[in-house]
Amino acid sequence: MASRQLVIGIDLGGTKIAAALVDGAGEIVAQDYRDTRAREGRDKVVARVLHSARAVIEESGVQASQIAGIGIGAPGPIDVASGAVVAPPNLPGWERVPLKQLIEDNLAITTYLENDANAAALGEHRFGSGRGVDHLIYVVVGTGVGGGLILDGRLYHGASGMAGEIGHIVVKPDGPICSCGRRGCLEALTSGPSIAREARQRMREGTPTLIAELAEGDESRVTAKLVAQAAERGDKVAKRVLAEAMHYLGLGMASLVHTLNPELIVFGGGVANLGERMFGPVREAIAELAFPEAARAVRVAPAQLGENAGVLGAAAVALAQLD
Ligand SMILES: [Zn+2]
Question: Which of 30, 87, 134, 224 could tie 56 with a disulfide, CB 3.0–4.6 Å?
């Protein structure tokens, strides 16, 4: 037990803060959850992050000096070199907040900061679907689309820390406007809200569909989850909307397969609950478009860490630095 490595993983989100004391094998020793209450401003949020970290230390009964490091996954963009949160849209008023420094000053434990998608990639690589895999692309498809790249066994940051912004690969130049202001990005075509937007469009065109029935005619109730339910019940419109969205996802993935020659693409986020309705079209696009040697080398798989993905990813950020 003396050699058991312990780190704290903190998942700082726009609505929730989760912290966990985690060992080197990914076992959660103690955990804590609280609301972010982002609107109360950065100082209060930073104080809550500190409380959450102290809570897991106290609950576990270990000494702070026995904790090798703290990893934090926070909304991007992140300046990894200085450990600052730059200006995430879901943390209003955060302008280059030196979070690493603030945590270290208060807890005297070495702290590492990473954007949440990169943290999730490291988590899947160390503890989840990507164990033992050296070339891995992690893709989160949910409210937005993001990702992280593990290349040659290490997280790849790129020249200015912006690598892995998979959601903004353009696959349809005349397509719908994206949250980033450009047109036809993967995020604008395959995220949950994009799927819902397409389904609403079909409803407006008057195409008969079970989606309208499930939403009781109320467009505002249409979500990607509801579209998936309609598809499960055989609705043709729902199936087509999903197939189209996942075809675009496949186009993006095929380009990544050409570029990076990965062994594994891991999908997380709510839309990944589509299962084969997602993986099927992605596999097809890769088989059709990528070079055979690269297409044969790659598997697609769902993320494994589920509701603990945030804290385990953050813990993996610290463990990767401590290796
Ligand atoms: Zn975009």
Answer: 30
